[in-house]
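Help needed: design a sequence for this.
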């Protein structure tokens, strides 16, 4: 009966229009722009973004400011298909160093006294056809080679070179292959961090990492070796710390040594940014105050590949997608797009099934927080906070406080609980507990108040039923909002929100029995 009423209602036609529009826009992205429907595409692209800030020195009012930054290399299976610079009124030039293939961008300005921010963004494709064109490294002139008269003479009178001679001799006696020597040296350094020899090398060479120290030692042994700086591209990351690894030149190509696994492996996810021990950003007559690297994985390679070969109309359409935004903003919208889906789940469960919850959007916000804390630890923390907050609310009710001060007091207790739980989580090694700050603190405070009022007005049973219903809806929303396919579809095709809106319109006109009411009045149905 209610379904026929909906079909004759103007709301149905509005909902049908929204569904048609949403499907048409999605079809345009799939057919016209080449968006893949499924996230399991074999080809992937990465959006890499670096932001750094500088503060010119006192002499910069007269002297020019020069800022140099290493750019990602088009090598090792990654091809740069697009890159953008925000120069902030600075002149920009780029160059490639022939021996190392390091790409360098240089920003210059004649005079400057203000703090500045610079942005660089690149889109990279995985490409097996790209090869490393850098040359075999030439040992620096000032590096004395093991076994030469000059090295032996220096080793006889200098304690550092004496220790170098001893450790190289030990490696030569134990290992024959260069790969084995590298592994042996790495294990020696790891097992002897506090030994006088390793401390002496660290004080002398001042290495930035273990890989850098190994290169300094092995170059004296004549080994063609270098430091490679880069990132391992997996998942989506903010504030990435660039890693240093070691590379050996053998059989006409470079082979990477991973210090974490202690193996030579050609990791397909490892992207070489630049080689050498220099920092990624260097400034002259200025100080680099902040450097932030972020990257995000995209399954839109077919689209991105078409963009650089497509017509201006398609390129304009791409600019109206979420992928044209900065990486950090994209990650924010991925979470925001989940909220309407979670709210739709709440509406369906409340309107169609009839499960009682505290508030409308509280379960959605809890589900959003559970994405960071993981399900089981998050539920345990949630239950503990509600339990302790309800006890505190019961105590405060005896003090006969006004509502606003009482809610403020409960808020203080909630924040204190989150603080204590975060400390305990860190001490016990539960990294997921450190995400408790994402919990909707104000919503938790209001839920504690609602639970307490329900206990006073309707009894403990009704309060427990509503609390259990809220947690159940939050868990269901959590599974919807963490589904791999749902995340991909809603972030790649935000037009699907029009279909969500249409579902809300139709759901708003539903006035039939809820599923729980069928169970509640089952005896009457049996008599009828």
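Sure. Designed sequence:
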């Amino acid at each position: 009966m209610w379904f026929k009423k909906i079909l004759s209602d103007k709301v149905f036609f509005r909902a049908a229009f929204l569904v048609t529009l949403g499907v048409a826009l999605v079809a345009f992205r799939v057919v016209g722009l080449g968006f893949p429907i499924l996230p399991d595409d074999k080809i992937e692209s990465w959006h890499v973004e670096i932001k750094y800030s500088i503060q010119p020195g006192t002499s910069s009012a007269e002297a020019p400011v020069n800022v140099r930054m290493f750019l990602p290399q088009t090598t090792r299976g990654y091809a740069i298909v697009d890159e953008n610079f925000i120069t902030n009124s600075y002149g920009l030039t780029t160059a490639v160093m022939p021996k190392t293939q390091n790409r360098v961008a240089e920003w210059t300005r004649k005079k400057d006294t203000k703090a500045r921010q610079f942005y660089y963004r690149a889109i990279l494709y995985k490409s097996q056809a790209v090869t490393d064109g850098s040359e075999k490294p030439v040992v620096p002139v000032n590096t004395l080679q093991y076994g030469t008269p000059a090295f032996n003479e220096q080793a006889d009178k200098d304690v550092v070179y004496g220790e170098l001679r001893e450790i190289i001799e030990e490696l030569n006696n134990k290992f024959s292959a260069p790969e084995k020597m590298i592994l042996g040296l790495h294990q020696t350094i790891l097992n002897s961090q506090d030994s006088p020899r390793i401390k002496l090398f660290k004080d002398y060479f001042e290495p930035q990492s273990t890989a850098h120290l190994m290169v300094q030692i092995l170059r004296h042994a004549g080994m063609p070796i270098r430091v490679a700086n880069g990132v391992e591209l997996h998942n989506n990351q903010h504030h990435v710390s660039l890693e240093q690894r070691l590379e050996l030149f053998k059989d006409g190509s470079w082979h990477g040594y991973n210090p974490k696994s202690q193996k030579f492996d050609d990791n397909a996810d490892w992207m070489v940014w630049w080689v050498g021990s220099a920092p990624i950003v260097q400034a002259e007559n200025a100080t680099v105050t902040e450097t932030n690297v972020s990257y995000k994985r995209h399954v839109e390679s077919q689209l991105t590949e078409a963009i650089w070969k497509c017509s201006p109309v398609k390129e304009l359409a791409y600019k109206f997608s979420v992928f044209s935004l900065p990486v950090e903003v994209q990650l924010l919208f991925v979470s925001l797009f989940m909220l309407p889906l979670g709210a739709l789940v709440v509406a369906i469960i409340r309107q169609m099934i009839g499960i009682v919850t505290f508030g409308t959007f509280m379960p959605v916000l809890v589900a959003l927080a559970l994405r960071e804390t993981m399900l089981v630890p998050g539920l345990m923390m949630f239950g503990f906070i509600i339990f302790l907050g309800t006890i505190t609310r019961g105590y405060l009710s005896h003090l006969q406080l006004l509502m606003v001060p009482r809610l403020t007091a409960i808020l203080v207790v909630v924040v204190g609980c989150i603080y204590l739980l975060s400390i305990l989580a860190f001490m016990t090694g539960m990294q997921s507990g450190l995400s408790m700050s994402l919990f909707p603190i104000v919503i938790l405070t209001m839920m504690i108040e609602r639970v307490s009022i329900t206990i006073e007005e309707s009894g403990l049973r009704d309060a427990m039923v509503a609390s259990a219903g809220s947690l159940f809806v939050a868990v269901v929303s959590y599974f919807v909002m963490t589904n791999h396919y749902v995340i991909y579809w809603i972030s790649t095709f935000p037009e699907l929100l029009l279909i969500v809106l249409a579902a809300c319109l139709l759901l708003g006109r539903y006035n039939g029995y809820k599923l729980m009411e069928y169970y509640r009045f089952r005896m009457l149905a049996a008599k009828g």
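The domain at 45-132+278-302 is CATH 2.60.40.2250 (Immunoglobulin-like).
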